[in-house]
Specification:
It is a multi-pass membrane protein. By secondary structure, the chain is mainly alpha-helical. Helices cover 73% and strands 0% of the residues.
Length: 244
C-alpha cells in the first residue's frame, strides 16, 4: 500500500494542473468574493454574522471537495481503466482495491490541505472566523469527504472514457453547489428548494460546517444524511465499478 501511495503521489506531482486547480480555485474565489463590501457586513439572515465569517469559507471547502471528488478522482480512475492498468493489476496478487484505497487517501489529503489553506487565508486576509469546534469540524469534513469521494467513484464507473469523466463530474457539481447555497443562501431559499438541499448531502455538509464555526457540535440530522449518502454511494460504487 505504501509503495502504491508513493507512486500515486509522484504521478499526481506530474499532473500539477489538477493539484493546483484543487488548491487555487477555492482559495482564489474566497479572496476575490471576500472583497465584495456587502459580504463583509453583518447579515440578519445569518444570525448577524458576516457572509465571509463562516458561510463563504464553508462553501469554498465544499468547492475544493467537489472539485477533487468529481473531476480529479474520476479522471484518474477512468484513465487507469482505459489504459488497462486495473485489468492487469487484477491478475496479480496485489488487489486493485489497494490502488483504489491509495487514490481515495491521496485525494482526501489534497482536499484537506485545500480546506486548511482556505481557513488560514480567510483568517489572515478577510478576518474570517475559524472553526471553534475542531473535533466536530474534522468529523463533518471526513464524513462529507468520504460521501463525495464515493459519489466520485460512481461517476468514474459510468464515464465511458477519461476525457468524459471530468465533464460528467462538472455537470453534476454545479447543481450540488447551487442547492448547497453557493449563489442563494439557504436561509432565503424557497421551501421546496430548501427541502431538496436538506437531503442533498452538500446542504447538511455546509450547515454542519457552519455549526462547528460557531462552536456547536454538528446536528444529528446533518450527520445522518451524510452517513446515509456515504453508505448509498459506496454501495453504488462497488456495484457499478468496472476494473476493465
Amino acid at each position: 500500500m505504501n509503495k502504491i501511495l508513493l507512486v500515486e503521489t509522484k504521478l499526481l506531482g506530474r499532473d500539477w494542473l489538477a493539484a493546483a486547480l484543487t488548491l487555487a480555485l477555492p482559495v482564489g474565489l474566497l479572496l476575490v468574493l471576500g472583497q465584495i463590501p456587502d459580504l463583509q457586513k453583518p447579515d440578519p439572515n445569518l444570525g448577524g454574522q458576516r457572509f465571509v465569517d463562516a458561510q463563504l469559507p464553508a462553501q469554498m471547502i465544499l468547492l475544493a471537495l467537489l472539485t477533487t471528488a468529481f473531476t480529479v478522482l474520476p479522471g484518474s480512475m477512468a484513465t487507469y481503466r482505459e489504459q488497462g492498468v486495473l485489468r492487469r493489476m487484477s491478475t496479480t496478487p496485489m488487489h486493485p482495491g489497494r490502488l483504489l484505497g491509495a487514490q481515495l487517501l491521496l485525494n482526501l489529503v489534497m482536499a484537506l490541505i485545500s480546506a486548511v489553506v482556505v481557513i488560514v487565508a480567510g483568517r489572515l486576509v478577510l478576518g474570517s472566523h475559524i472553526p471553534q469546534q475542531l473535533f466536530g469540524f474534522l468529523l463533518v469534513f471526513l464524513l462529507g469527504a468520504a460521501a463525495m469521494l464515493a459519489l466520485g467513484l460512481v461517476i468514474a464507473a459510468v464515464a465511458p472514457n477519461s476525457k468524459s469523466a471530468p465533464g460528467i463530474g462538472s455537470v453534476a457539481m454545479f447543481p450540488l453547489l447551487f442547492v448547497a447555497g453557493m449563489w442563494i443562501p439557504r436561509e432565503i431559499m424557497p421551501d421546496t428548494l430548501r427541502t431538496i438541499s436538506d437531503y442533498s448531502v452538500v446542504g447538511p455538509f455546509v450547515n454542519a460546517m457552519r455549526d462547528t464555526w460557531a462552536g456547536d457540535w454538528p446536528q444529528l440530522p446533518h450527520l445522518a444524511v451524510m452517513l446515509v449518502g456515504l453508505v448509498l454511494f459506496t454501495g453504488l460504487a462497488v456495484r457499478m465499478f468496472k476494473w476493465e
